[in-house]
Structure formats: C-alpha cells, structure tokens
Amino acid sequence: MSSLLKNSIKQFKKIGLGLAVLAVTQSAYCDWTVQGSQIIDPNGTPFVYRGVNLGILPDDASLPFVMSDIAFSGANAVRIPVQGMGNDRLTRYVEQCKQNRLVCVLTDTSIYGYGDNFGPSNQSDILYAWLSRKPVLDAYKDYVIVDIASGPSGNGGNLIMQFYEFIVVLLRLQGVTNQLMISGSNWGQDWSNELRDNAEYIRSKDSLNNVIFSVHMYEAYSDPATIRSYLKSYLDRGLPIVVSEFGPVRRDRTNETRNPYVNNTVAVDSIMATTQDLGVGYLGWTWSGYTTKFTDLNMFTAFDPNKITPWGTRLIDGENGIKATAKRASHFSAGSASSRSSSSVSSENLPPYAVITGRVVNPACGSAFAEMSGADSKDPNNDPLTYSWQVYDSSLYSYQNFTGRDLNFPIRSNVVYQFILDVEDGRGGRSTATKDMSLNFPSACPPPPSSSSSMRSSSSRSFSSSSSSFSSRSSVSSRPSSSSVSSRSSSSAGATKAQCSYVINSQWSNGFTASIRIKNTSNTAINGWDVNWQYADGSKVTNLWNATLSGSNPYSAKNLNWNSTIQPGQTVEFGFQGSKSSAAAAVPAVTGAVCQ
To answer: Which CATH superfamily is 33-252+261-331 part of?
Structure first.
C-alpha cells in the first residue's frame, strides 16, 4: 500500500467517515458487471458502447430536447461531465438518461491534465466530489457508470498507478458500488502506455473486480496498427476497454508542447472499423456546443438536430457508425436502437418532454389571469399526449389539480404560484415541467373615469374583443372548460342591453374557476351593473375578484367603481373560484336588469 493511500485512510478516519471494508458479495453491490473483457448489463447481456459525449452541456431548459435527440440518433450511451453539479441538477441529467434509455457515463474533468497546471492541486478533491454524489449514484446504480476522472494526468504521465490505487480503494471502502471506468494518462490518450501496462494492477485494487478501462483516441492514434495493438492488449488479457473519446481532429490544441503526436491526423475510420471488429465500445466527441473554435468536433451545430455536421454524419450514419451497430442495454428494452430516420423509432417508445409556455393577461385591481399552455410539449414517437396540471398557491399552502393542455388561472398580486405540468403518452412515458410565477401589480382600484375619458379608461380596464380570445383559446383543452350560458336583452332597439355569459375556465375534482362576462351590445354606455346566478347542485363561490359579491346562492355581483361603465361593444369580466362535487362544474344562467 502506497504512503499516499495510508495517509489518506488516516485522514478519513480523523474526519469520521467511518471506513469499514464491506464484506458483501459482488452481486449485492452492483448489477453492471464484467466477465473477462466483456461488459455485462444488469440483465446479464453483453453490452457494447455506441454513444456520444455531451462534452459541452446545454442550458437546463434544453436538456430534455437534447437527450431525446441523442436517443433518436441511435446512441445507446452518453458521457456527461459532472464537475460543479449539485445533486439536484445531476439527478435531472441521470433521469433524462434513464427516460431515454441511455447508459449514463458520468465523468469528472476537474483534474484533466493533472501535472500540467490543470485541475486542483490535491487529487483527493475528486474523491470527496464523488462521495458527495453517492446518493445519486446509489439511486440510479443500474443506469450510471462512474468514470472517475477524465484524463487524470498530462503530458508526463507517471501518476496513474498512485492516483487509482488511492481513489479506487477509498471509493469502495465508502460504499460506492457502481461500475468504475478508469481513464488513460497523457490527457486520456495514454501514449506512454502507463495505463495499458498497469491495468491488471489497478484492477487488483478493486475489491469488487468491477472496473473497465478507457482511452481517448485522437492524434496519438493515426494508423490502424497502433489502434489495433493498443485495444487488443487489453482484450488478450481479459480486460474490458472502451474508446471513451475520439473525433476527426485533435481535441486539445494548447498546453501540449511535449505531445510527440501533435502534427498527426486522427484515423477515425480505422477506430470505428477496429472497434467494431473487436467488439469494443466507443463514445464520439462531442454532440454540440463549440461556437468559435473546434467546431469541427461538433456533431450538430447549436444543438439543432436539423444541422448535422460532416462529423455527425460520419459517426451516426456512416460505415460502422451508431445507427448501423448500436444496441441498447437489454434492461432498458430489447431490440436495436432507434434513430430519426429509422422505422424502428415507432416500435420503441421514447418518453415525451413537457414544456410550459405562459403569460399574464389583464393585471388590474389586485387580480389577473395566468394563461398557461403545454402546447409546445412533444413526443418523439408522435403519440397523443394527455396533460395534467398542479398549481401551488403560496398564500394558501395548497395545490389545485386540473386537466387539459391549456390552463386559465386567476392569480393575485404578491403571491408566488408554481405551475407543474405532467405529460403522458399513454404507453408509460411521462415528463414533468415546472414554471414559477409571481407578479406585483396594483391592489387599489383606480377612480372611476371622467366622462371625457371614459372610452379610453374603460377600454384599458376591460377585455376588448381581441383580448377575450384568451379565455376562448384556453377553453379548447380536453377538460370541459368551454361551457357557457348567455343571456341577451330582448328590449327594443336602441335600449341599453347586454349579453351576460357564464364561462367555466378550469375545474378539478372538487373545485372550479369561472368568469361572468357582460358585453354591451347596445349603442349607448351602461353605467352600473349587477348580475345574479344560482347553483342547483350545491356548488359554492369561495373567492371572487373584480366585483362585489353578496348572497349565498343565489349570488349577486355588483360593479366596482372602476368597471361600472361599459362602453358599446366592450366587455367587462369578473372571476371567481368555487367548490363543487366530483361531477362536472355546473353552468347556471346569468340574470339581472342589465341582461334583460
């Protein structure tokens, strides 16, 4: 045991991490295993990597789209850098891997090129980082491979044995039981053969005998003989090896003054042909993200699946490429991987991804409406989607449930609302999106308009015919939200009259929101109004805005000062929330002097 390892164990004991060798069998630890040079998935089937690196991460909002696109390419695995991620964000990434049936290789690049002024000064930092991620690693053990460190030494090498003896032993002692991936020296390319020559020694330090080895193949692998020789050296000794990075040009073009291969090209065709011939896995670098330099390493431009690059075409669609050779891990599903142009897409279900869009309309006098929609949600298999919502009101500490693609929800000033959309495809696929909203708008009603400005003031405080499309559009949802009852005055021509409508905006198991709209259909202004309605099913109004409520079934609502005047052709609307039975919300008739 090295002095570094001895000192590290002493330090761990001092800080109370409670090291204890866990005498448990291999099968109790981790379902990913190795048999000789083969990698075995949790279903007991040999697995060969045919995937990509997500070396440059998209913004979190785009993550579901990007991961779905990767699955559509046919890839069966994705390698993700996780340094700096909190466990909440890490969980979102791993969950996307799981939903899209991608083996999730998590790697830490914080000591990339160690010894050449890269990464932290103390390699133990990476150990603490992995231990902090242990709750996620445990929860997703069947879907996550731990690539301990990407290229954990620079040009000089000579650090691999010491580093991996240190970290493999301590990870196992602390109960990290995931399959481990061991990366090569020399920025991952291992041109000094330090990892190759010491792989058996490193494997002997794993109490679970569950490590796989990896190499980055760039300019150090410019001819077929070198590629084959390096990979076969592992296979001949019964050691699993994966090409965890490769691309058409050098990935690193700075800080490698001692790299003897800097002027070489990369033998991409030979790498793909040789790995296919030997049954070795590969992960291409990188999906997207380069914008000003190294763009020739992008498979897609700007994360747009419609902008495939020559490198993406070669890796995904070319000979020995992903589409032609990839098979998913068998514990996800049987059969070959899906692809954007393959008929197999429809036979293998991929989950939808939920997207919320929204806006606030008519903020006035302490209330407004949030117009939320799930219309931008997508399903990779074009399955019909069902939508359900939960809305959290921070002032009431409660959730309300709704169904349908669109939601028209009343909100109040200075209250935090969280909108949660669940989208399901009917075949077990599901996705969730959230959106928080909080607005500050006037809670005091403005004074009534003067006669000289009544047209403009009334227009700004009521729904015009164009803004009323807000409610009618939301009523297109699958829930019964388009029900309405209207009353139109039957008085003689020229008399002041209005059309009074009761509209269900949304409903859930024991509640609803509704609005009453009063549209002036005459050619003279309405000055003051009140309306009445009554429920026959026991429904009750619990909260009302933009009017004064009286009564308790029948109910009456009377104008406020600011919305008492309704100009010809204009509409005033007030809204309310109520309770009901489990039956559909009732739609009573609206009556009143203004409606008759």
So the answer is: Glycosidases (3.20.20.80)
